[in-house]
Amino acid sequence: MDKEIDTFLKKLSFGAIAIASVTLLSLFLRTPDSCVPPDAPPKPHLRFPKSSCDFHSTRPHVPLDKKNHRLWSSRDWRNKVHSFSLLFFPLRDLGLLRNHSKVLCISASAGHEVAAMSLLGVEDVTGVELLDSPPLVQRADPHNLPFFDEAFDLAFTARFDLALFPARFAAEMERTVRPGGVCFVLVEECGIDEVREVVRLFRNSKLVSSSNVTLIGMRMTGILMRTRKSSS
Protein backbone atom coordinates (compact mmCIF):
# COMPACT_ATOMS: atom_id res chain seq x y z
CA MET A 1 0.00 0.00 0.00
CA ASP A 2 2.77 2.42 0.98
CA LYS A 3 4.64 1.56 -2.22
CA GLU A 4 1.60 2.40 -4.37
CA ILE A 5 1.15 5.74 -2.58
CA ASP A 6 4.84 6.55 -3.05
CA THR A 7 4.60 5.73 -6.77
CA PHE A 8 1.51 7.90 -7.13
CA LEU A 9 3.19 10.86 -5.41
CA LYS A 10 6.24 10.59 -7.68
CA LYS A 11 4.02 10.61 -10.77
CA LEU A 12 2.14 13.59 -9.40
CA SER A 13 5.43 15.43 -8.75
CA PHE A 14 6.71 14.75 -12.27
CA GLY A 15 3.43 16.01 -13.72
CA ALA A 16 3.56 19.20 -11.68
CA ILE A 17 7.16 19.86 -12.72
CA ALA A 18 6.28 19.36 -16.39
CA ILE A 19 3.32 21.75 -16.18
CA ALA A 20 5.41 24.38 -14.37
CA SER A 21 8.20 24.12 -16.97
CA VAL A 22 5.79 24.58 -19.89
CA THR A 23 4.14 27.55 -18.17
CA LEU A 24 7.50 29.23 -17.44
CA LEU A 25 8.70 28.68 -21.02
CA SER A 26 5.53 30.23 -22.42
CA LEU A 27 6.05 33.30 -20.22
CA PHE A 28 9.57 33.77 -21.54
CA LEU A 29 8.43 33.48 -25.15
CA ARG A 30 5.38 35.70 -24.81
CA THR A 31 5.43 39.45 -25.52
CA PRO A 32 2.99 41.67 -23.59
CA ASP A 33 0.00 42.40 -25.84
CA SER A 34 -0.22 46.00 -24.58
CA CYS A 35 3.14 46.91 -26.12
CA VAL A 36 2.89 45.28 -29.53
CA PRO A 37 1.89 47.60 -32.38
CA PRO A 38 -1.01 46.45 -34.61
CA ASP A 39 1.22 45.78 -37.62
CA ALA A 40 3.85 43.79 -35.71
CA PRO A 41 4.40 40.08 -36.53
CA PRO A 42 2.94 37.54 -34.06
CA LYS A 43 6.37 36.90 -32.50
CA PRO A 44 8.48 40.04 -32.96
CA HIS A 45 11.20 38.61 -30.72
CA LEU A 46 11.81 35.63 -28.47
CA ARG A 47 13.45 37.60 -25.64
CA PHE A 48 11.42 38.11 -22.51
CA PRO A 49 10.99 41.91 -22.17
CA LYS A 50 12.64 43.70 -19.24
CA SER A 51 9.64 45.97 -18.80
CA SER A 52 5.99 46.04 -19.79
CA CYS A 53 6.80 48.28 -22.76
CA ASP A 54 10.16 47.01 -23.95
CA PHE A 55 9.42 47.63 -27.61
CA HIS A 56 11.74 50.36 -28.89
CA SER A 57 10.08 50.94 -32.24
CA THR A 58 7.07 52.48 -30.47
CA ARG A 59 9.21 55.38 -29.19
CA PRO A 60 9.73 57.96 -31.93
CA HIS A 61 13.07 59.74 -32.19
CA VAL A 62 12.90 63.46 -31.35
CA PRO A 63 15.46 65.58 -33.24
CA LEU A 64 17.95 67.51 -31.13
CA ASP A 65 16.78 70.90 -32.38
CA LYS A 66 13.21 70.14 -31.27
CA LYS A 67 14.41 68.98 -27.85
CA ASN A 68 16.45 72.15 -27.42
CA HIS A 69 13.60 74.38 -28.59
CA ARG A 70 11.30 72.76 -26.04
CA LEU A 71 13.92 73.20 -23.30
CA TRP A 72 15.00 76.75 -24.14
CA SER A 73 11.42 78.03 -24.43
CA SER A 74 10.47 76.81 -20.94
CA ARG A 75 9.97 79.29 -18.11
CA ASP A 76 12.43 77.41 -15.90
CA TRP A 77 15.20 77.75 -18.51
CA ARG A 78 14.54 81.47 -19.05
CA ASN A 79 14.53 82.18 -15.32
CA LYS A 80 17.84 80.42 -14.78
CA VAL A 81 19.50 82.17 -17.71
CA HIS A 82 18.24 85.52 -16.42
CA SER A 83 19.68 84.75 -12.97
CA PHE A 84 23.11 84.08 -14.50
CA SER A 85 22.85 87.26 -16.57
CA LEU A 86 22.35 89.32 -13.40
CA LEU A 87 25.39 87.61 -11.92
CA PHE A 88 27.60 88.53 -14.89
CA PHE A 89 26.52 92.17 -15.28
CA PRO A 90 28.97 93.49 -12.63
CA LEU A 91 31.87 91.91 -14.55
CA ARG A 92 31.04 94.23 -17.43
CA ASP A 93 30.99 97.25 -15.13
CA LEU A 94 34.46 96.27 -13.87
CA GLY A 95 35.77 95.94 -17.43
CA LEU A 96 36.49 92.24 -16.92
CA LEU A 97 33.96 90.99 -19.47
CA ARG A 98 33.68 92.34 -23.01
CA ASN A 99 32.03 91.21 -26.22
CA HIS A 100 35.36 89.98 -27.60
CA SER A 101 36.35 88.14 -24.39
CA LYS A 102 37.08 84.43 -24.67
CA VAL A 103 35.15 82.74 -21.86
CA LEU A 104 35.27 79.20 -20.48
CA CYS A 105 32.37 77.90 -18.36
CA ILE A 106 33.47 74.80 -16.44
CA SER A 107 30.98 72.21 -15.13
CA ALA A 108 28.32 74.05 -17.09
CA SER A 109 25.58 71.44 -16.67
CA ALA A 110 22.89 72.15 -19.29
CA GLY A 111 24.51 75.44 -20.32
CA HIS A 112 22.51 78.19 -18.60
CA GLU A 113 25.64 80.26 -17.98
CA VAL A 114 26.76 79.79 -21.58
CA ALA A 115 23.42 81.06 -22.83
CA ALA A 116 23.56 84.01 -20.42
CA MET A 117 27.01 85.03 -21.65
CA SER A 118 25.82 84.89 -25.26
CA LEU A 119 22.77 87.02 -24.43
CA LEU A 120 25.10 89.62 -22.93
CA GLY A 121 26.88 89.84 -26.27
CA VAL A 122 29.96 87.72 -25.54
CA GLU A 123 30.84 86.12 -28.86
CA ASP A 124 33.27 83.36 -27.84
CA VAL A 125 31.90 81.18 -25.02
CA THR A 126 32.86 77.56 -24.41
CA GLY A 127 30.99 75.34 -21.97
CA VAL A 128 32.29 71.99 -20.71
CA GLU A 129 30.81 69.24 -18.56
CA LEU A 130 31.34 65.52 -17.99
CA LEU A 131 28.19 64.92 -20.04
CA ASP A 132 27.75 67.06 -23.14
CA SER A 133 24.63 69.08 -23.89
CA PRO A 134 25.00 70.23 -27.50
CA PRO A 135 25.30 72.78 -28.86
CA LEU A 136 26.01 74.80 -25.68
CA VAL A 137 28.14 72.35 -23.71
CA GLN A 138 30.79 69.92 -24.89
CA ARG A 139 32.14 66.90 -23.06
CA ALA A 140 35.35 67.39 -21.06
CA ASP A 141 36.81 66.51 -17.67
CA PRO A 142 37.20 69.70 -15.59
CA HIS A 143 40.23 68.10 -13.91
CA ASN A 144 41.92 67.60 -17.31
CA LEU A 145 40.73 70.32 -19.67
CA PRO A 146 41.47 69.79 -23.40
CA PHE A 147 42.63 73.37 -24.03
CA PHE A 148 45.97 75.10 -24.53
CA ASP A 149 47.55 77.15 -21.76
CA GLU A 150 46.33 80.76 -21.49
CA ALA A 151 43.57 80.17 -24.07
CA PHE A 152 40.84 82.18 -22.29
CA ASP A 153 40.35 85.63 -20.80
CA LEU A 154 37.91 84.46 -18.15
CA ALA A 155 37.02 81.11 -16.61
CA PHE A 156 33.85 80.61 -14.57
CA THR A 157 32.30 77.83 -12.54
CA ALA A 158 29.23 77.73 -10.33
CA ARG A 159 29.96 74.20 -9.13
CA PHE A 160 33.39 74.35 -7.53
CA ASP A 161 31.90 72.76 -4.40
CA LEU A 162 31.22 69.58 -6.39
CA ALA A 163 34.81 69.12 -7.62
CA LEU A 164 36.22 65.69 -6.72
CA PHE A 165 39.74 67.14 -6.56
CA PRO A 166 39.45 70.89 -5.85
CA ALA A 167 43.18 71.61 -6.10
CA ARG A 168 43.41 69.93 -9.50
CA PHE A 169 40.23 71.69 -10.64
CA ALA A 170 41.69 75.07 -9.61
CA ALA A 171 45.04 74.36 -11.29
CA GLU A 172 43.36 73.47 -14.60
CA MET A 173 41.16 76.54 -14.39
CA GLU A 174 44.19 78.79 -13.87
CA ARG A 175 46.20 77.05 -16.59
CA THR A 176 43.67 77.87 -19.28
CA VAL A 177 43.41 81.57 -18.31
CA ARG A 178 45.88 84.13 -19.68
CA PRO A 179 48.06 86.16 -17.27
CA GLY A 180 45.96 89.03 -15.98
CA GLY A 181 42.79 87.12 -16.80
CA VAL A 182 39.94 86.27 -14.46
CA CYS A 183 38.90 83.20 -12.48
CA PHE A 184 35.36 83.59 -11.15
CA VAL A 185 34.15 80.91 -8.74
CA LEU A 186 30.85 80.38 -6.93
CA VAL A 187 30.68 78.32 -3.74
CA GLU A 188 28.07 77.74 -1.08
CA GLU A 189 27.58 80.89 0.99
CA CYS A 190 30.51 81.24 3.38
CA GLY A 191 32.63 83.66 5.42
CA ILE A 192 36.00 85.26 4.78
CA ASP A 193 37.97 82.35 6.28
CA GLU A 194 36.41 79.88 3.84
CA VAL A 195 37.00 82.34 1.00
CA ARG A 196 40.72 82.44 1.87
CA GLU A 197 40.82 78.63 1.82
CA VAL A 198 39.40 78.61 -1.72
CA VAL A 199 41.80 81.33 -2.90
CA ARG A 200 44.77 79.35 -1.55
CA LEU A 201 43.90 76.57 -4.00
CA PHE A 202 44.45 79.04 -6.85
CA ARG A 203 48.20 79.34 -6.42
CA ASN A 204 48.75 81.65 -9.38
CA SER A 205 45.92 84.08 -8.66
CA LYS A 206 45.15 86.90 -6.25
CA LEU A 207 41.81 87.81 -4.73
CA VAL A 208 40.03 90.79 -6.26
CA SER A 209 36.77 90.61 -4.31
CA SER A 210 34.23 88.30 -2.74
CA SER A 211 30.54 88.88 -2.13
CA ASN A 212 27.37 87.02 -1.27
CA VAL A 213 25.06 86.61 -4.25
CA THR A 214 21.77 84.94 -5.11
CA LEU A 215 21.74 82.52 -8.03
CA ILE A 216 18.51 80.76 -9.02
CA GLY A 217 17.16 81.34 -5.51
CA MET A 218 20.27 79.95 -3.78
CA ARG A 219 22.52 81.97 -1.51
CA MET A 220 26.12 81.64 -2.67
CA THR A 221 29.46 83.41 -2.39
CA GLY A 222 31.18 84.72 -5.50
CA ILE A 223 34.99 84.79 -5.46
CA LEU A 224 36.68 86.91 -8.11
CA MET A 225 40.41 86.41 -8.77
CA ARG A 226 42.93 87.59 -11.32
CA THR A 227 45.77 85.40 -12.50
CA ARG A 228 49.22 86.82 -11.88
CA LYS A 229 51.14 88.16 -14.82
CA SER A 230 54.43 86.58 -15.78
CA SER A 231 57.49 88.18 -14.16
CA SER A 232 59.44 87.98 -17.42
Question: What does this protein look like?
Answer:
With about 230 residues, the protein is an alpha/beta fold. The protein contains six helices and seven strands, in the order H-H-H-E-H-E-E-E-H-E-H-E-E. The chain has helices spanning about 1-30, 65-70, 75-95, 110-120, 165-175, 190-200, and strands at about 100-105, 125-130, 135-140, 150-155, 175-190, 205-215, 220-225. Helix 4 (about 110-120) links the parallel strand 1 and strand 2 (about 125-130). Helix 3 (about 75-95) packs across helix 4 (about 110-120). It is elongated, with a radius of gyration of 29 Å. The mean pLDDT is about 85.
Strand content: 15-25%
How many angstroms does the end-to-end distance come to? 108 Å
- The ordered H/E elements are HHHEHEEEHEHEE
Strand order of the largest sheet: 3-2-1-4-5-7-6
Shape: elongated
Q: Can you tell me the residue ranges where pLDDT is under 50 for at least 5 consecutive residues?
A: none
Q: Total strand count, please?
A: 7
Give the quaternary arrangement of the chains.
single chain
Into which percent range does the helicity of residues fall?
25-40%
Task: Give the radius of gyration.
Answer: 29 Å
Summarize the main sheet.
7 strands, mixed
Mean pLDDT: 87
From the helix content, strand content and strand pairing, which structural class follows? Answer: alpha/beta
